[in-house]
Specification:
Pnp Oxidase, Chain A, seven-stranded antiparallel beta sheet, 3 helices
Amino acid sequence: MDDPHLGAALVAELAKKTGVSWVRHEQQTHAMWHVWHGDALCLVSGGDEQPLPDIEDGARVEVLMRSKDNGGRLLTWVGTASVVRPGSAEWEPVTTALVAGRLNLPDLATAADAWARTSVVRRIVPTGELVEGPGTLSDDAHRATPLPTPATTRGRLPRVLHRRVKRRPKLS
């Protein structure tokens, strides 16, 4: 895209419509839920929230966005990450937007206080640089090995998840 205003508008529109994006930092890609607030992608990580390695203030990250409808890759843009610190002028509006966008919070009233103690709230502001966009998407599948996790199943999996029809039913 040649027009930077069109690219910025596309980033904002996609970020408002999708709830999940992929953040790439130091050759690692992490799926992250987010909200678009103001002019930045806002997310919370660490503690009981989604894992994300430490990204220092001013670090360059790439954000990959997919279609909410069909999951197809639409856009990859470059942004500058910054930490939103508790007590700063940005803290209240950003955490309010994150609380509103976060599903299944145990307590809406204390979520921001818990994030201040155990998590990191970040903003990713677009730089205007698009890595991939409509008409310039690479043929790379962007597949990666999942990161190690302590998550496991609770027990043995069921033997049959869905019963299949042995014979086709007669149509007439």
